[in-house]
């Protein structure tokens, strides 16, 4: 077994030709969310991955093995549930509401412009269908959102923004005068209603809902 303990997020800084030639590791999310595991790469080598605690791997990341060789990580297709809003009887806001409720349950969730993805859970799927969302089973790569401030935030992208700018460009020194502290604004909590099932809600043939109450999308 050969060990790999260095991760290059997205292969940043590597020549594309080197990344393309590298052996690959195709891993599902459960494996990529671990910092220590063993797997076999596309060349048949057994790789022992040992990364700092809390590290997650994303598709496109590159591991550097102890002999200097590169191993490119691929997000394997796995069972997921995909959630879309009903274009005939709903609106894109329904998807936002769904993300809110799934987030309250701390579900690993992938956000895309037109759909949500999460690992199969029949109870959550039923909850979403009662809100007139379309839930379908699929096999797809799963890249859930990371924590806003932790490892994997924003799918591991690093934008390198430098906010250490000089405040002298405002045309005055903060020592010239004293600013009065403004009162903190009072923020009212945002109430997001949950749609109950409406027996009078009529679905057309294009909605995708099965009203034999067999919601296998």
Secondary-structure topology with pairs:
Blueprint: E1 2-8, H1 16-21, E2 23-27, H2 29-32, E3 36-40, E4 46-50, E5 62-65, E6 70-75, E7 77-85, H3 93-104, E8 110-111, E9 116-118, H4 122-130, E10 133-141
Parallel strand pairs: 1-4, 2-6
Antiparallel strand pairs: 1-5, 3-4, 5-6, 7-9, 7-10, 8-9
Helix content: 10-25%
Main sheet: which strands, in order across?
2-6-5-1-4-3
Shape: elongated
Order of helices and strands: EHEHEEEEEHEEHE
The main sheet comes to: 6 strands, mixed
Strand content: 25-35%
Classification by helices and strands: alpha+beta
How many helices? The count is 4
Mean pLDDT: 78
Distance between the termini: 43 Å
Any low-confidence stretches, pLDDT <50, length ≥5?
Answer: 152-182, 184-206, 211-217
Number of strands: 10
What radius of gyration results from the CA coordinates?
A: 23 Å
Oligomer: single chain
């Amino acid at each position: 077994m050969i060990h790999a303990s260095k991760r290059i997020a997205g292969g940043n800084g590597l020549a594309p030709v080197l990344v393309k030639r590298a052996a690959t590791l195709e891993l599902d999310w459960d494996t990529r969310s671990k910092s220590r595991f063993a797997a076999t790469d596309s060349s048949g080598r057994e790789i022992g991955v040992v990364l700092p605690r809390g590290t997650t791997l994303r598709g496109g990341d590159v591991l550097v093995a102890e002999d200097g060789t590169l191993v490119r990580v691929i997000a394997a297709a796995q069972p997921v549930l995909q959630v879309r809003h009903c274009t005939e009887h709903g609106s894109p806001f329904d998807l936002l509401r769904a993300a809110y409720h799934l987030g309250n349950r701390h579900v690993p969730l992938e956000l895309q412009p037109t759909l949500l993805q999460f690992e199969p859970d029949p109870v959550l799927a039923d909850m979403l269908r009662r809100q007139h969302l379309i839930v379908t089973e699929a096999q797809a790569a799963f890249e859930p959102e990371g924590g806003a401030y932790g490892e994997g935030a924003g799918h591991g992208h690093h934008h390198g923004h430098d906010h250490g700018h000089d405040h002298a460009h405002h045309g005055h020194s903060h020592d010239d005068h004293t600013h009065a502290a403004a009162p903190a604004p009072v923020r009212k909590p945002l109430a997001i209603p949950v749609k109950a099932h409406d027996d009078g809600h009529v679905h057309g043939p294009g909605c995708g809902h099965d009203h034999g109450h067999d919601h296998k999308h």
